[in-house]
Specification:
This protein has 346 residues and is mostly beta strands. The protein has three domains: 76 residues, no CATH class; 134 residues, Lipopolysaccharide (LPS) transport protein A like domain (lipopolysaccharide transport protein A fold), CATH 2.60.450.10; 96 residues, no CATH class. It has a 26-stranded antiparallel sheet that branches. Strand 8 and strand 9 form a beta hairpin.
Length: 346
Amino acid sequence: MSIRVLLLLAAAARAGVFTVTALRAWTVEAEGGATLLELRENVVVSDGEVTVVSDSATLREEEELAEFSGDVRVTHDSVSATGRYLSYSRPQGLLLLTGNAVLNDGESVLRADRITWFRFAGKATALGGVVMTGDWLGEVTGEYALYDRERGSFFVTSEPVLRRAEEGDSMTITAQKLEFFLDGERAEAQGDALLRMPSRELIVSAEYLLYFGEEDRLEMVGSPQVEAPEGALEGDWMEMRLRDGDPESLRIEGNARGNLGRGDSVTVDFNSQKAFFGFIPGMELDSLHLSGTATLTAVSSGRVRAEANTITAEDLVLRFRGGDLDRMTARGTVRGTYSWSGESSD
């Protein structure tokens, strides 16, 4: 009978819940009278639900505890994990992985210096150098993460950053806390949320930011602001829809205000209850619709003097062409002034 077969028979009798194989095995009596089973080379240990492959292992049979080292690989249902060291408590369903720890659930991959997997609760915590990747996530980094498989979510704290790159464009989101819901492709940034699109020179800030990946949509709550080379916008609540990485529209509700303009073109300052911006590809402004006691001031910088035009109405619609104001329509109790300096000779 081979050593492998002898070990299988002996381990089944001694360990009870564990089935083991290895090229070498022996027992050691530890302090307190406990018996340790030492395994070396091509180690495979299974309790019928969790299977571990490693270079070496130490089993505390009576306590149903096991420690593994070397090239550690763990499988349980659709979840797999790897690391340099593993401590497994079967009664608690607790697995502690250290040393380039990686947890993979088939949809996303979590990496960290240390991962604690609570098998019965379907949760895992990650500490130190946390990196999580997924098909729609891009890459999320931080120093601490909590993964909840049953809820389909995880959150990252301590300097969390979300980075996404798509067709040469990039987007980063930072906050005090980032939370992700994998099934709905939804992300939430809480506390000093900041979104940057460097290729568009676009910065979005708010206390609370929600990103809906399937809809390519952002919601901003809590003093949201948008800054771009063309101007700055503020309000109580904002929604931005994206297409191929570019803003397609922006909706502001509650105390909408801001300014638009660049260089010598027309500068527009506005305030209203609601505002809706439409963009064409390249983030060029196509239209602006203001409603709810809207006030607009357009300043045109001419060669001789600047002309200021202020209009108040219930509803204002502005159309742009090539980035310049092309047409404006005002409805409902319209008041204001309009003047134009025209061209002047020297």
